[in-house]
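W.,

You were right to be curious about this one. When I first looked at the sequence I had no strong expectations either way, so I just let the prediction run and decided to look at it fresh. Below is the sequence, 481 residues in total, followed by the output.
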Amino acid sequence: MEILAFIPPVLIGSALVVLLLPQFNLKGGWIIFTVCLGSGIGVGLTSSTIFLWLAWIGRPGAGYHLFEIGSAILLTVMAACRYRRGRTAGPDHFRADEAQPDVPVRWLKRLVVVLLLISSGSFGLKAFVEDPYGTIDVRIVWNYRARWLFRGGDQWQHAFYSPVARDVEYEDDKGHAADYPLLITASVYRGWEVIGKDHFSIPILIAALFTFGTYFFMYAALAVLRNRNQGYMAVLLMLVSTQFLHLGTDQYGDVPLAFFILGTVAIFALKDRLPEISPQLLALAGFTTACAAWTKNEGVLFLALVILVRFIGQMGRADWSTVARESGYFLLGLMPVGGTLLYYKVMFAPRNDMINVPTLRETIFHLFDLDRYLITGAAILKKIMTFNESIVILLAVYWLISGLDRSDKVRKHVASNIILLFLMLGGYLFAYVITPYDLEWHIGSSIRRLFIQLWPAWVFIFFYCVRGPELTADKGMKIRS
């Protein structure tokens, strides 16, 4: 069965999370947090490992599979031993589902479960029956390149020649999106190598892992940081805003990127709440940030902004030794997947189709064109107001009714994550300004997907900051004060 191909990545990633955070009981929100985050990290690590194996050793055979399975078993055993020893050493004041003692609102929980089941059925029907090969972008980028890796033999590097070139002048540059990172492509290729055939079920299962992993991780992160009901509310909003599910069903790379951006933001929120275990959490943030960069070029922008906001931006507020120490922990997590990305970009990837020497003059000209800023800015503002059927209005109403949670543990450092996401929007704006493509076409064809990349992180921050329903054992349902 194709699903068995995902056991090693899930075990590897989950074991790494436990090895870094052995203090917490694996129950309730924490076990969901661990498995979801670990699954994403495991996919990132195994995709980079199989690419390096292909580049350095050759086509992966029995030796690679033994290496991967052996690594999964070894890490799982090590994690089990460390978990057994580490539970008593954990921070007693912060256990799973005890961030704010609560009892789940039953109707809210049931509603979320029902919507999840409906969404699962919709995903399965469309992905496996109606459109198993995904959209045109999936077929000509991710899966096209994966098939070259799988079927190309000694000519597997032709995977980085795209069948779609922007125009004749740049055909030798291998075309549109040819330099995209390889997390999805290599993960699809790895799955095909494991099952021995290039079956459409592997990319569908990858899409399902990240789509529904985002929902479950959203719940777990908020259950750990706030309470379970806040987690249910966030997942409910994600399920109601159906564009995320639609892009996941279509197998777009924006959904895995959204998962890793959400994971990074949630880990930094957890790090700010638990400074005593910040080294481990910074290493985890390094893993998720590197996986974001290994997913799409927008993830490289995210990596640069994380370094700017969370480290360079702290130099004036913290002493140099603290910043250097935290940067080192982050770099440790960044290195395995980030090093693979750097190796791919230097040795294999062609030049970017938007930023390169032939278009440099045009890019500089666009930077000083005020009209392009106005057009792009107006399009972004319009999309904010109309995104997911103007769901921002629903969020505004909810905020007006519930208000902000003004407790210190919620307010602390939340501004850093908000600044990070706004800078990402600014990065998108500049990408549109300098694009060599037709501006209106480029905005119309991609702006929805760019918003999806940040949408789960925005939903997380919103429900992390606002007050929500809490049902205590002795007082019934109330709005937190």
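Here's what jumped out at me. The chain has one domain: 2-479. And, maybe more interesting for your project: The longest helix spans residues 370-402.

Coffee later to discuss?

I.
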